[in-house]
Amino acid sequence: MKKTPVFIILFAVAITIVFIILNKDMKTRNINTDKMFSIRRNIEFIYKNNSTHIDTSSIQKYRDSTYNSLSERIKSNTQFVFYVPENYCNDCFIQEYNKLMKMPTKMQRNTIILTSFEKNRDVRLWVKDKEIKYPIYNCSDKSFLQEIASRGKISFFTVDTTYTLKHLYIPIIFIPEQSEEYYNFIKNNIFNINIEELSINNTKADIVKKKHDFGNISLGDTVFTEFSIKNIGDEPLVIKRVDSSCDCTITEWERKPVAPNTETIIKVKYAAYKIGSFSKRISVSTNTENGIIQFTIYGNVTN
User: Fold this and answer.
1) Could you give the CA distance from residue 21 to residue 23 in angstroms, rounded to a whole number?
2) Taking the model in full, what pTM does it have?
3) CA distance 51 to 41
4) How many CB atoms lie within 10 A of CB 95?
5) Are 244 and 281 in contact (CB under 8 A)?
6) What is the DSSP letter of 191?
């Protein structure tokens, strides 16, 4: 009986190995293609989600230095809502929150966080622990969210000026591409953000007064003051957002770029709700070299 030459055996083995490698590579490409198709299909399904009308009366303001209520905020513009249930996935929250912080200014200004904690104390502890930068509203009555709240998962949606909930999206932590697709859709189709709005050059600002002393004021009184910011640079000054350390402090400002050699005013209103001395900080996020401009109001509330 003739023996098969060694080189023929080696050749056959080599051909088999090459076939296995090529077949595996083809399967990998097919899996990736199927994955991307699934993402696009899921995104399309999400965008076609049936709209729901929401009742804002069941939603309480926890912290919003710009508007007195969610109703008032919604009337001003479409809002992008980051919904965080009481029993949420922490890794999911961190991943999505970090992405959200990188979104353009126009989108940031109209973003809020909505929680569904049963007790306000729990909201306060959560905010302090996470150092949340966005306006926060809480709704212990989850009925208005219907299916969203029942799932107990982090979600995103928009609410337009007709109080209609749209574009519901529930992120999947191991498919980050899906979130990118969703953010791009919201950015381009809801807030109409173009390339020019994404790139803002730095400028310089001159601040004459950074602190204001209200002195002695009576309990229940509301007092006002103003802070001026002058653009002394060569580029437009853009106020991205204004945050205060307490919702007893309400701020107002003109929401448009400030031309070089022009001033803008930050109006501050403080409601004296507690006896004793107080000190509140107002943080203005800008495109200046330092980024954040801080103002302080203080005084003493008497009976």
Assistant:
1) 5
2) 0.54
3) 19
4) 16
5) yes
6) S
Residue 156, CA distances (Å) to 25, 89, 134, 142 in order: 36, 14, 14, 15
Percent of the chain at pLDDT > 90 equals 28
Backbone angles phi, psi at 186, to 5 degrees: -60, -45
Least confident of 97-111, 201-215, 223-237, 268-282: 97-111
pLDDT in tens, 249-299: 888 888 778 889 999 999 999 999 889 999 999 999 898 988 889 999 999
**Side-chain half-sphere exposure of 35, counting CA atoms within 13 A:** 11
What token pair was written down for 106? Answer: 């126009």
* pLDDT tens digit sequence for 124-140: 888 888 878 899 999 87
CA distance 138 to 117: 7
Rounded Cα distance, 189 and 203, in Å = 29
Question: How many angstroms separate the CA atoms of 54 and 37, rounded?
Answer: 32
Whether the CA torsion 181, 187, 192, 196 is positive or negative: it is negative
